[in-house]
User: Fold this.
Amino acid sequence: MQVALRAQVWTQWPGHCPTAWLGTDGAWIMGTASDVDANPVRDAFDVYAYDNVRLGSTNAYWEPISYAGKKNLVSWNWWRVLLELDKGVRSIAVYGDVLAQGQTNPEFRAAFDFANRYAGHQWDPAGSPGAWVALRQGSGRMAGNFSWFMSQLDPATTSTAVDSNAGASMIGPASQRFGRYARRIAGGTAQNTMSFVLDPSFRSSIATEQTTLHVTYLDSGTGSFQVSWGSGAEQSVTVKKSNTGTWRTADIPVPGLEYAGALAGGADLAVSELGSDATSFAMVELTVDDR
Assistant:
């Protein structure tokens, strides 16, 4: 029998539930009212999960807050899934009527498929199907990017956070899941390049694998950006925008051996704006083709 104890018993009733109860063969943490929008009460429990699940050795089950009154449910659902993964939550509960939308709406289905692909691999770099950074600022105790075996170097100084005001003013089309948050780079400025580094254990595990980079960007304007993963001329790709106004994803095949920390600052990959245009990005993901 697996026991799950509410996060509040550790954060609001200290001393009655020692952390020794947690562990791979011990109690799980469970939580309710998960909310990706600013919530100064609930994010205390999120931080506890991050510290003891994502960075620890126990598991967690989490339920969502009521979405009544939430603006743009499709993006709230997507970013809420990313929050749970960032915390290391293995079992992510979803309201039935939201889950049912995955049968007809590919944006909801993509969020659930993403969760199913990654959940449970938070301590498993050699078995993880990939690594990613979801680009945001947000607020409260869970401010900043959500990530998985990949991190952005100096996000505050190399990019500008873009926010939708909790879904009230979506970045890009309201029908797409990405635009609750983003980060933007601008050509000709000091914030023209975002750089990313892989977890060393994950990087080692993909040395003999074929991978694919997925860079999700808002196709606004007609400028170009470059994706680089090494110092060689053949280790970069230029993506030209076509001003559709939609979120698009550039998919780039890369041999895993080529991620070698060879870029500035020891980065494994970088995204740079060319010319004088600016581009908003929602996610950089690296998937391992055979996992």
Q: What stands out?
A: Helices lie at 8-11, 43-54, 73-87, 96-100, 106-118, 155-158, 200-205. The longest helix spans residues 73-87. The longest strand covers residues 278-288. Residues 121 and 128 are 5 Å apart (CA to CA).
